[in-house]
Predict the structure of Alpha-1,4 glucan phosphorylase.
Amino acid sequence: MASESELGIKPVTSSELDQHIMRVLRNRVGKDERAAKQHDWYRAAIYALRDEIIDAWFKSTRRTYDAGGKRVYYLSMEFLIGRLLRDALSNMGLTREMEKALAAHGLDLAELEEMEPDAALGNGGLGRLAACFMESLATLDIPAYGYGIRYVNGMFRQRIEDGWQVELPETWLAHGNPWEFERVESTYLIGFGGEVVAHGDGVVWDPAEKVEATAVDTPVVGWKGKRVNTLRLWTANPVDPLKLDAFNAGDHLGALSEQMRAESLVRVLYPADSSAAGQELRLRQEYFFTAASIQDIVRRHVQYAGDVRTLHEKAAIQLNDTHPSVAVAELMRQLVDVHGLEFSEAWEVCKKTISYTNHTLLPEALETWPLPLFERLLPRHMQIIYAINSRVLREARKTGCTDAQIAAISLIDESGERRVRMANLAFVGAHSVNGVAALHTELMKETVFADLHALYPTRINNKTNGVTPRRWLQQCNPGLTEVIKDAIGPAFLDDAARLSDLQAMAEDAALGERIDEVKRANKVALAEHIRRTMGIRLDPGALFDVQIKRIHEYKRQLLNLIETVALYDQIRSHPERDWVPRVKIFGGKAAPSYHNAKLIIKLANDIARRVNSDPSVGGLLKVVYVPNYNVSYAERIIPAADLSEQISTAGMEASGTGNMKFALNGALTIGTLDGANVEIKERVGDDNIVIFGLTAEEVAAKRAGEYNPRELIEQSRELSQALSAIASGVFSPDDPNRYHSLINGIYENDWFMCAADFDAYAAAQREVDDRWENKAGWRASMIRNIANVGWFSSDRTIGEYAKEIWKVL
């Protein structure tokens, strides 16, 4: 067991932990050993572990206060933290002690870990990145708070019924959350609407509606318990929960209206914004959590440092994408209206304190709000935004910007319905604006922020994303971790860059066989899980070809499915060939209002139904769409994957982190030169990745030119046959026209370049087949992938943020 000097915590024996669990079982859970059920032991184990964490948490907090150091505040709409029990045990160095303590009562730790629900606090890569960053902040001993919303139902729990996505409430909090602590003393009033009135030399915002934001804290444990930081999530409560006079008058719903309005703020992640009511709720959510967070940050600074003018010396606020961009206006409101700073002085403090991460080049993802909506909900903030805009545009005019450049830089989009540009607000209100992959950062300068970059040429910088190797190697793939440890020693556990020591052993046949044995065991375990939960039998000897991510047209699950149909056709037409057996695994959620994405899910399931029941393909091809893909499912799938599908339209994926997780677990990547694929290729080498398709520059040129997808389709026999089969109802006999519009979009427009990249993609897949049949070569490529992606650790990413943006290291 690790020593106290290594961990920064007091060592605990299995006997001591057993005694602690028994005390908790009796005194907090209220059961004795004979009456306790599985869920009682589960809660007792977490409470006992939590008690150990609390000591380290308090110690971390005291060290920060005593040192008077700078804190990082990470604002994000999502924190996809997954299950915490295994993560915390591993980082605290208590896994074996917990196993022994529970085994003494006939209990299996792995079974208790399976009882923990995934926290429904995020959806995709943005939220998982935030979770990795929080763990790395603690690991690097950087004082930090994560700020977000404590969603009661998250985005949704996905069920697949007759192939269609069905959205159900995610009830992860139904039996409480043993990890969290409510902090009623950290409660803030959040206002909406009303008016701004003159008051002395300044103004006062008098909101028409107020809700209370109350903090709920979860400890975030770093590697070896060196530091425990805080994830602070906000829950909403009405100021007046029950209008008793209305209730007694028989207006029961009206009496609870404020309660329902408050609860709506924390009920669902990303409420559909296709309606005016949905747009308003989403803006309310963003302001609610951002305003509470800014008030909390400023209150803490004033309490311990005194002078709000030094905020930037003690606080670094990072905005994770555009969702918390209103923080710029809210911080200005706090500095000017509450603390009495002059606007110019407040503006300098604001810019020095805030930094902004952009995660997308998609214009529709760079949030804008109808100006009337924004002004009605946040009238004082609208005034502040106009004042900021005036300063920025005058500055732009002085530098010689044209009218067109001024229009692009403006915080108000005047081109149609007047809208507030939140990405522009974040850009001008921050001292640093970073992209999340080298290609993405350069494209930011050339596209969405071209004119702002020209005005502020030193502001944009790159911080390529990373993933925590603790969860995405050590915890989800313990078999591979042990093989690596035997091969190169344990140093990589503390520093993922030391995985490079494997590079010299890439051709070691014995090591390749051991890693392959681990991979097969992981595939057997995944196949058994899918058989048990979905009734589909898979061959662990087949190539497991995986695409798991949010369903979106630019991520091109559709291209993968079209090639699957073409492969299905080829296998049936040429049974004499030695086809490589494949299992195609898909997973991910589509936004409830995203019609084409939901149609792609249905298509995947329609193809699976036909292919999996066709005896003519035998065991050569299986298609699986796993329901309700989440962090825990990823932890099963990624260690079992042979091929990682990263096939987005070039120039549209900011970074990706799934690509890093797969490579870290020995999967080969098939992908375009997009996002972090570019840097993965540079790290692992051309021979250990399969790249195909148009570059970002070529995509832009085709869109700007006279691209004719129909002509390309007619020239490609496999593509035209596959599209015809899908469009004509071969896979949807109950509704032959179901996919007509989806496929017609490729013929008429093909914005996502499925037709343009199909032949190259199909050829790349046959190259994968050839590589798979060379077992020694495949194993060597697996090792080279593992060896060369340690650089993509979130520890490295956070270290760069800390040194170059936050100035805390």
